[in-house]
Amino acid sequence: MDRYAFYCDCGDRGSFEPDGYITDLGQWVRYEDALAIRAAALEEAANVTRPPNDRGPTARPLDEYHEDYGFVVWWKFPVNEPSWIGSPSCDDWPGYHTHWTPHPEIPVEPS
């Protein structure tokens, strides 16, 4: 008996029985084909690079920071030393950083 998977190009993939709930967001494909689609998508995602004109997040000044942001990445310009991660309320706050950017997302754990 063939196994099927419901493939949705919106990032939501799941394995279902053929009589499962179907929406118009995706399509039924053979399980082996779904694995190939997933492998290709993962390979494509691994090769994503920033566009040449994207310099990353824009640093925001200290006065735009609020403690509700939690720990962020702090910078002193010109950048000639590593960034510092934390908040101005930390005991070891260096006190001379003038700008901050959001903390990067947590990476996916390697398999």
Report on the structure:
With 111 residues, this protein is an alpha+beta fold. The strands form 2 sheets. A 4-stranded antiparallel β-sheet has the order 3-6-4-5, with no helix packed on it. Strands 1-2 form a two-stranded antiparallel sheet. The longest helix is centred in the middle third of the chain and has 16 residues. About 15% of the residues have low confidence.
Topology readout:
Layout: E1 4-8, E2 26-30, H1 31-46, E3 60-61, E4 72-75, E5 84-86, E6 99-101
Features:
111 residues, alpha+beta, 4-stranded antiparallel beta sheet, 1 helix, 14% helix, elongated
The largest pleated sheet is described as: 4 strands, antiparallel
Q: What is the overall silhouette?
A: elongated
Tell me the distance between the termini. Answer: 30 Å
Counted beta strands: 6
Estimated share of beta-strand residues: 15-25%
Rounded to an integer in angstroms, the radius of gyration calculated over CA atoms is 22 Å
Q: Note the quaternary state here.
A: single chain
* Percentage of residues assigned to helices: 10-25%
- Number of helices in the DSSP assignment: 1
Query: How are the strands of the biggest sheet laid out side by side?
Result: 3-6-4-5
Structural class: alpha+beta
The arrangement of helices and strands along the chain is EEHEEEE
| Low-pLDDT runs | 9-25
Estimate nothing, just give the exact number of structural domains.
2
Task: Give the averaged pLDDT, no decimals.
Answer: 74
Outline:
This protein has 1 helix and 6 strands, in the order ββαββββ. With 111 residues, the chain is of the alpha+beta class. The protein folds into 2 domains: 4-46, no CATH class; 60-101, no CATH class.
